[in-house]
Amino acid sequence: MQIKKYNAYRITYKDGVTEHINAENLIQALQNMTKKETDSPVIQTFMVKEGVDTLVEEAPTEVLFTAVGAEGGSLSLATPSNGKIHVGDQIQLKAIPDRNYQFVNWERNGTEISKEADFLYTMTELAESEDTVVFTANFEEADVNWTTSVTPSEATGTGCVAFPPSGKIKPGETLVMLAVDNAQYTFSKWTRNGVEVSTAKQANIKVTPLAKGEEKCVYVAEFNKVGGD
Fold first, then answer.
1. Which sequence spans correspond to the domains of the chain?
2. In terms of CB atoms within 10 Å, which end of the chain has fewer, N or C?
3. Alpha-carbon span 75 to 1, nearest angstrom
C-alpha cells in the first residue's frame, strides 16, 4: 500500500444517493463507482477537494519478456513470443520438439525453471542483474530405439546369433554388432530397415537419426544357408 494525492469527487445518483470517491481524475472516479448506472443514473458530479492523501494499492510491477526455442524445437501458440506481464501473473509455456529431438528444460535467463515442456509459470520480480526476462526452451537430439534380428528366421535356432538384442543410443554414436555363423549358415551382411550398412561380422555402425517414416531402427543379420539355392 502507498499514499497518493488524489482528488475527492462527489457523485449524486438519480435516487438521491450520494457517493464520495477519491481518484486521480473524474473518469477514474466514474469507473470506481459502487452503484451501477442501470440501478440509478448519475445526475451530478463535481470535485470537492484537490490533493487529498489517499491510501491505494501499489500497481503490480510489469516485466518485459521474450520466449524463444533453441535449436531442435519451437514454441506453441500458447507461448507468446514476447510481451509484458505483471509480477504474480502466469504465462503458459509450451515447447514442441522437432523430429528426432526431445525437450530438455525451460530456462529463465539461463537458470532452469522446469523440466516440463508444458507448464504454467508465475512471474517473479526481476533480479538486480536483470532488466528483462528471456524464457528459453532447450532441446537435444532424441535417442534412437533399435533392435536386432536374424534372417532367415530358422537360422536363429541353429547357432547364428546377432547381439546385443536391443537398446537406445544417441545419433552419432557407434553400435558394435556381432553376428556368429556356423556350419549350416554363413553371414552375409547387416542391414538397417532394409538398407545394407556393413558386410563385417563384427560391425561398428554409426547410428544416424531416424528417417521420415521410421519409428525405430531394426538391424538385421542376414545369413545364407550353406549349400542352399
1. 2-56, 62-141, 144-225
2. C
3. 38
Taking only the tens place, the pLDDT of each residue in 111-158 is 999 999 999 999 999 998 899 999 999 999 999 999 999 999 888 876
Q: Locate 112 and state its grid cell.
A: 532452469
Do residues 100 and 143 lie in contact, with contact meaning Cβ atoms separated by under 8 Å?
Answer: no
- The single-letter code of the amino acid at 168 is K
Within 8 A by CB and 6+ apart from 16, the residues are none
Nine-digit cell string for 214: 521410421
> Would you give the DSSP letter of residue 222?
E
In this prediction, residues 189-204 reach a mean pLDDT of 94
Tell if the pTM clears 0.90, that is, is over it: no
* The one-letter amino acid at 24: E
Output the DSSP codes for 26-41. Answer: HHHHHHT-SS-TTTS-
